[in-house]
Design goal:
Elements (H helix, E strand, L loop, with lengths): L15 H15 L13 H17 L3 E9 L2 E8 L1 H4 L6 H13 L8 E6 L3 H10 L3 E6 L1 H4 L15 H6 L16 H15 L2
Parallel strand pairs: 3-4
Antiparallel strand pairs: 1-2, 1-3
Helix pairs in contact: 1-2, 4-5
Length: 201
């Protein structure tokens, strides 16, 4: 799960050598258990390798340990590491950045027929984005309980271990201070009625 964890070092250095040298080690640690609810394909290996390499390069460049590839028919449509550290944008997770790139490239908000490779099980924000863009498969290479001894994060409103649970709560029970501004609820609903009138069913 990506998040807002802070890097422990501000060092930035060339990544290629380290990433290439340690790629085999990373794959050994992750193991064959990367695939959940789908059958591995022969073509997965090269994209798994690139996903790991991209994240490793990002770590060496001062970024966070996450990455994502979008692949269709054996072609990489988009790839990105997590860019939160570099951009100061809390939404610049690898998944969201690569989804934007891939959707722009295919000219559609749907990534139907695409495979998505991510280093970690998606956080709730990225999981929602994946539901919306409708990929064929999502292959994640690590789970939270595997990597939390090395990387963890939290913010004012969630702890690393309970972020998913927050989403299951009623809106008025969440840590985030949500307020239902119902003073002009009818006027707000008029916007949706207008959309329906313009677009039909």
């Amino acid at each position: 799960m990506e998040g807002t964890g802070r890097s422990r070092s501000g060092r930035r250095r060339r990544a290629g050598g380290w990433a290439s040298e340690h790629l085999a080690d990373w794959r050994t640690v992750i193991g064959i258990s990367v695939f959940r609810n789908s059958v591995p394909r022969n073509s997965d290996s090269q994209f798994v390798d690139r996903t790991i390499e991209l994240a490793a390069e990002n770590v060496e460049d001062g970024g966070r340990p996450f990455s994502r590839l979008v692949v269709r028919d054996g072609e990489v449509l988009a790839e990105s590491p997590n860019l939160v550290e570099q951009s100061n944008d809390p939404t610049a997770h690898a998944e969201t950045v690569a989804i934007r790139q891939a959707c722009q490239r295919v000219g559609s908000e749907s990534l139907a027929g695409c495979d998505v490779y991510v280093l970690a099980h998606p956080c709730p924000m990225c999981l929602g984005a994946l539901y919306y863009c409708e990929p064929e498969r999502v292959i994640f290479l690590t789970q939270r309980d595997q990597y939390e001894q090395y990387y963890t994060d939290s913010t004012k409103y969630f702890e690393f271990g309970d972020f998913y649970d927050e989403y299951a709560k009623e809106w008025d029970e969440r840590n985030l201070p949500l307020e239902f501004g119902d003073q002009r609820n009818d006027d707000a609903l008029d916007v949706y009625q207008r959309w329906r009138a313009l677009h039909g069913d």
